[in-house]
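Re: the request from the purification team.
They wanted to know what the chain is likely to look like in 3D before they choose a buffer screen. I agreed to run a prediction and write the result into the notebook, where they can find it.
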Amino acid sequence: MIPLLTKPYEASTAIAPFRIVAFSDAASGAKVAQATLATQPLVGTTGKVPTAAGEMADITRVGIGGVQLGGTVIAGDRLTSDANGCAIKATIAGQHIIGTAEAPGVAGDIIDYLRAGGVHSGN
C-alpha cells in the first residue's frame, strides 16, 4: 500500500479494517460509515486499524490502498462496494467505483487497489 493522501473523518458507526466508506452525513462531509450500496458515492478505504463510532478514521483518498474483497476479482477490474463495505467487481452501469484492482483475489483477501473514483459505464 502506498497512500499518497489520507484524510481523517469521524466514523458515525464502527468500521472494520480495509473497508470502503461513504459519507454518512453528505450535507457536511465530515462523517463516514462503511459503504452499503454500490450506487452511493464512495469516499475511500480504511487502513488496518478498526475504528469505533465517534473515533477518527484515516481514509485513503489518493494512491494505492488496501481493501478486503467480497468476491472474486482479477487485476484491472473496476471495484465497487458490496453491502459490507468489501470490494467486488463493478458490473452494472451506474455503480460507483473506488478504483481498480492491482492484483487478483477472492472473498476475504486483502488486495492493493489504485484509487480512482468514478461511475461505472457498464463496459
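For the purification team: The chain has a mean pLDDT of 94.
Please add any questions underneath this entry.
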